[in-house]
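Blinded run. Sample ID left blank on purpose so nobody reads anything into the name before looking at the predicted structure. Input follows.
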Amino acid sequence: MIDTRPDTSVRVSLLSRESRHLRKETIIDAPTVTPGPAILRDPTALRGTPLAQAFEPRRNSVNALRLALAGIVLISHSLKFQGYEDPVGHLTGGDVDMGTMAVDGFFALSGFLILGSWLSSPSTGRYLWRRCLRILPGFWACLVVSSFVLLPVASLLEFGTLAGFPWTGEQSALTYVVDNAALFVRQYEVPGVFGGEAVNGSLYTLFYEFACYLAVAALGALGLLRDRLWPLLAVAAAVWLLALSELLDGAVLTSRSSTLEIALRFGSMFLAGAVAARVGPRLPMGPAGGAVAVLVLVQAVVLASMATTPEASTLVYVVIAPAAVAYLVLLAGASPRLHRIGSRRDLSYGLYVYAWPVQAMLLLVGAAAWPLPLYAAASLAGGLALALASWTWVESSALRFKSWTPGPFRA
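Blinded prediction complete.
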């Protein structure tokens, strides 16, 4: 991570790596079906209860957890936008920090929920249609709003005029929408705005999220998910062995391809959550398991901090942490204590995708000099306002079509 200090002229320099290949945060809808009956009305009953019984599909804290994870990402980015270091990132010296660990939590939770979504879908086509409805409309709306609303406002704040604003042409506001519409972020910047830095460094993770959706669909279509556990375990073991071999070989492949490095990390987290979904009837959830998971996660961070290179630091963490991350997010998500948060309006996705540009715009009005709590609070308020608009006018509207499946998805 590069320690850069943005100022009122919007020098929004986060790490060069983070500006282009930032790690994500993925946000999905609540599960439609989860294994096991709804037996927990008392949170204390979670002690030692199998996951399949502890997790109630309609009475859990998943939405609250996702909102909290998005908030952690916002705090991590707030630190970097103001020129400070993420404390975990400072310790590890690499890409293992509070923000990326929160994104890991998103992926582990996603693995659990998405496998349940596939198992409950009548067909692979219906499953894919629902996944598209949940992720694409909000993503496309964010691209359009960022390009044709937020960026022009940012230009006005910085220069007092829209003269010269790159509406069209190469590396323009228009190409920012078109080139990134397929989820893989190819254009991060719009020259002349935000000091030439990333418009939104969080969106890149959604490509890897959707890639995981496709992997589940492929395994399911081959008949490798519904009745058998070993194929999923074999895939998870293969990914873990790849991470281990990369660590032992000095990151020969991942040092040359950030795409592979990101896919290996997020894929490992997603698979850990998916495996937990399949072993749910035999996976006890409780404080003792949570304590063990915390110790494993702390060990992963400590050992990552001892690595000699940023690539090795990430690989050490990826080899050790996924199971612990999955256990902790599922333990927190299974609790019914916060089940009312987000039960009607899930703002976590919108907060995740809009927080970055809101934070960058605040720097244009002097937020670089604000106290960190004030900057984070203002970023949260602006992000939640746009998240509410996204949920009300885009996401919830799209989800009304989840029971209807267009022809190409009916197979």
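Unblinding after everyone has recorded impressions. The chain has one domain: 16-409.
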